[in-house]
Amino acid sequence: MRRFLLLYATQQGQAKAIAEEICEKAAAHGFSADLHCISESDKYDLKTETAPLVVVVSTTGTGDPPDTARKFVKKIQDKTLPGDFFAHLRYGLLGLGDSEYTYFCNGGKVIDKRLQELGARHFYDTGHADDCVGLELVVEPWIDGLWAALTKHFVSRKGIEQMSVTLTTASTASQRMDPVKPELIHIESQVELLRLDDSGRKDSEVLEQNAVNRDQSSALIAELESSLTHSIPPLSQASLNIPALPPEYLQVHLHESPGQEESQESVTLMDPIFQVPVSKAVQLTTNDAIKTTLLVELDISKTDFSYQPGDAFNVICPNSDSEVQSLLQRLQLADQREHHVLLNIKADTKKKGAALPQHIPERCSLQFILTWCLEIRAVPKKAFLRALVDCTSDGAEKRRLQELCSRQGAADYNHFVRDACASLLDLLLAFPSCQPPLSLLFEHLPKLQPRPYSCASSSLSHPGKLHFVFNVVEFLSTTTPVVLRRGVCTGWLATLVESVLQPNRHASHADGGKALAPQISISPRTANSFHLPNDPSIPIIMVGPGTGVAPFIGFLQHREKLQEQHPDGHYGAMWLFFGCRHQERDYLFREELRHFHERGILTHLKVSFSRDSPAGKEQAPVKYVQDNIQLHSKQVARLLLHENGYIYVCGDAKNMARDVNDTLVEIISKEVGVDKLEAMKTLATLKEEKRYLQDVWS
């Protein structure tokens, strides 16, 4: 068989799953894939590699390559490497990202660009898959086109006469499956979703006008509209292209005898774990605020945990106990929840390179694994749905699951599964005849990831303590039945700290409660650059609406202590652009910010209230942080372009961070007198110099 090297760089398993799919499909097309994680540098050597290279790369943070690719990227970024170092290499790259973030697919783009600079050349166009609209919209056609591109590559290397039969097949496939440009796929997918939304609106308008009463309206909706369990023409009458059944590879045995001692340390693989008590919890918002925001203080005095302002750390959290119990009951395993689990690889598996999941510890109870190890809230991928099809006995239910994992049902999958955040439990409740074995869950449910939080304090100001801030995430599930859900981690934390929670909105005035302190497990995050400049005379701009202000509280506390310790030092200006909905409901750290401002630590405090009418003592002339930045465009441009200043942005990636980025482009364009493209290049240079830093999330 014709061999190619297949590397993946993954953060949460998505790139690995796609690479494994490519590996499994390769044999059917006459290829053999040599599959490795990009971090396994002892198992491949690109300098001597003669086979074509296929790389699947995810993106993490605000546009960084995943942790597994850090060493690889550092190695190829070596400036002493000659320009022809990879001249012998031919490759195709698939980047994964989310267009809600400013630096879309940047993990893949960084590697792609550097490989080109070192002489490597594409044998296949790069694909950029967008999780915002559905990765599969790019991933599926990219994989389909890969086989023709590989065939052409081998034909050009070995001669047409050796592969005339394959060439005929490949040319047909090439005509049918030429790689589609990522931009076109993105636009088409957006249009497809818009069409779905438009048709839904028209149907509901007609129903509202013509329905006699609510019952009749509901009946019409059931007939005329799609749902998770129901489809309408043309999909309900279409011939379907469904993915191949993923090969089973795990055997699960449940044993009554007690397992080993279970601890949260066993659920993480790399970082040290610190179990620390909660010493304080304060509600920062009023009870009538749209979101509830909590500040939690951890006592780290008896640990080796250390941090500096701008750092983040992981909280190791469990799944909701009620959801775990519901899943056990639905699987008819409630009476075996305390049985310990033994996993083995099936002897007859067809899965290449099958390995036991590293995130499932040995000899732990079923309940522990579902609680601490598996992301039971994860949106099931199409491969999982395909596997569930064969576990479903009812014909109508089986057909609907086939539709949802099919190419023809992509819009329905996006609308009713991905966008609705439907979980495995939601699907099992919606399709009662589906009875999957436990092995299927262990094969397809990803690792329960620790949740990252920004440090909201300085150890200079709060020795032995660590503060962090979060909104308690609440949302209505759009599946049946509709229920109010909380975020996996924020919901757990909110419940955990109830016994010590204080309603005092001013964190600095609140003392620790006397109730028995609950404990949580935390681990440090890998080093980042979201830190204050080493030189305190450099001016900085901080943009942090809502809980995005958290790391900047640490910055300000740190600067205050520095100025107390070194009063004769030279300190640069500190600007903060803060925003929230209501001045009297969710102005986080209001007293603390006033204190810093009055002391001259915070030289410029610019606040905006998006939902208040313009009135009151602290009338905000603008609604959003980007409007305030625009209002002070000359000062911002001078600080960044002439005073070597830094700008930090923390908070929502979907709207705020992108709007701030666009505003900065406009400001540079206007103040410098250059076109938009040149302004974007200037901003990109600031990012490369690590003077434009982001800590954002969706």
TrEMBL record:
Work out whether the entry's keyword set contains Phosphoprotein.
yes
Q: Which cofactor does it need?
A: FMN; FAD
Q: Tell me the Pfam families matching this sequence.
A: FAD_binding_1, Flavodoxin_1, NAD_binding_1
Gene Ontology biological process terms in this record: cobalamin metabolic process; folic acid metabolic process; homocysteine metabolic process; methionine biosynthetic process; methylation
Judged by the first EC level, this protein's enzyme class is oxidoreductase
Indicate yes or no for the key word Cytoplasm.
yes
Q: What is its main location?
A: cytoplasm
> Which ranges carry the Oxidoreductase FAD/NAD(P)-binding domain?
542-661
Q: Which GO terms describe its cellular component?
A: cytosol
Reading the lineage from the top rank, the first entry is Eukaryota
Keyword annotations for this protein, in alphabetical order, are:
Amino-acid biosynthesis, Cytoplasm, FAD, Flavoprotein, FMN, Methionine biosynthesis, Methyltransferase, NADP, Oxidoreductase, Phosphoprotein, S-adenosyl-L-methionine, Transferase
Which residue ranges does the record assign to the Sulfite reductase [NADPH] flavoprotein alpha-component-like FAD-binding domain? 273-492
Please list the reactions this protein catalyses.
2 cob(II)alamin + A + 2 H2O + 2 H(+) = 2 aquacob(III)alamin + AH2
Localisation: Cytoplasm
Q: For this protein, what is any one GO molecular function term?
A: flavin adenine dinucleotide binding
Q: Where is the Flavodoxin-like domain?
A: 6-142
Task: Kindly indicate where the leader peptide sits in this chain.
Answer: none
Q: Which SUPFAM superfamilies does the record associate with it?
A: Ferredoxin reductase-like, C-terminal NADP-linked domain, Flavoproteins, Riboflavin synthase domain-like
Provide the E.C. number(s) assigned to this enzyme: 1.16.1.8
Tell me the subunit arrangement.
Forms a multiprotein complex with MMACHC, MMADHC and MTR.
Specify the protein name.
Methionine synthase reductase
Native source organism of the sequence: Pipistrellus kuhlii
